[in-house]
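G., the chain you wanted modeled:
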Amino acid sequence: MEGYKCTCGADKPSRIDSNRQVFVKRELRDYFVDLLLKTGYREVRDPAFSQGRGIAYLVKNTTGESNRHFILWHLIYEEIKRYTDDVKYHLTRGPDVEFTSLDGRRIAVEVEATKKSDKQMQRKLKVLKKYDEFFIVVTKSQDREHYEEYGTTYTRTIIPKLIADYFKPEPSPEPKTKAQSSSESKTRPHTNSSYLYQQPIIPLEPTKPRKKGYIL
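Predicted structure as tokens:
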């Protein structure tokens, strides 16, 4: 695909990553939109982290999952990448996304677009419970109640804030006041421990080398 040139859309990126499978259509030059549509991408509308009809994406879904699942899974991965490079995604085995929080916990994220059976969920839980913490994200808010019996479940709209919270530093201890005696300090020490999960970690899959992107 190298060699294609475009003189329009100078305010938009002149380079795209050929490994990327989800693009926001309005952020691309017309040249790239045409090129991607000719190479297996499809235009799909999705609400992302909001509600409603959403915006147009160009998607190359190479999984057996629905486009709704595929896009949200991809967007969660990209949102976590804003805070850390220690993030992985899985196409088959393991959770949809896993990452390390600021305090070192391994977190698993499972995206669900349909109601899974109890047998299917019990099989998933055997993997998810190997992490320090996990949560489920449903693409449809009406499915939240179904999944809450298996673990903490969220809808798409809260995801950006939820991920940001995993990377907030713990607040510093409050300074002692003059009225606070040393004996009182010993009986009332400052604590800030809200992280209770300590479970074994499963090994990460090796990261595949990235291919060259398209260059104008």
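Residues 16-169 form a domain with the Trna Endonuclease; Chain: A, domain 1 fold (CATH 3.40.1350).

Shout if anything looks off.
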